[in-house]
Design brief:
There is one protein chain. The protein has a single domain, classed as Rossmann fold. The protein is about 35% helix and about 20% strand. It has nine helices and seven strands.
Length: about 260
Amino acid sequence: MKQEASYFSPAYPSFSRNQQRQQLVSPDRVSWGIAHKPFDDYLNDFSKLPWEKASNVEHHLQRLSTFVDPVVIDLLTYPEALRELYQRLGEPEQFRGLSVGSNDPRSFKERIGDDLIGITHLAGDLASVRRISGKPNSWDQIRLWLGDRTADFILSRGFAGLDYIPDRPYYYHFAVRQLWSMLNPDGGMLLVQTPPVETLLQRGISMINWKLQLKDAGISMYFLGSYQSRDYRFSSREPVRYGILQLIKSADIPLPDVTQQ
């Protein structure tokens, strides 16, 4: 009986981790909708930033490509974008990537392939900040995954996933503080899609006031208040508008309260 090669056997002695992964994942697997898009698809949205800020993203990726062990977190999604980003960064030997989505639709082979290249997927609920019966929530689990490390790049292109995020000011206060504390103080970047500026203002979040507070604190921030995305409402077929927030952490300093008016 022929022995089936496993990912840790000598069957792939000269392959890179990504080549090993490709042996395990069918290349003709049909992706579902906009939730399973590669990293380049994210750039279609993040390129809406002004040239200077968009070039910051490209420079950051170039910088990460020099790292042996970059740490990347992608929220409200599945691992597809991280897989492509791993390749874009030159397949770093000690790459660590975490995607967080509402469930885990991967096949067994995909899970093995992701493990091979350092990608973990967490099926969790970022909308919940409570610990039920003392069990860790999804934010706790992200911290457990990080251990004593910090993230070099945290991103999110959530599209309709943002509809499931609580609209209370406290949640924004909690989430942005959590993400800031997870960032590498030596140039870590947060790049996330947000509700448009008008929606945030209705929810008690003044990005203009927060920007002034961040400037006083010496924190590099840019916020694109509203742009027309490729996402649309099924009922009206009209495109949905979003915002984009970019923060760069260059020192381990407290983040001003986003809810402070």
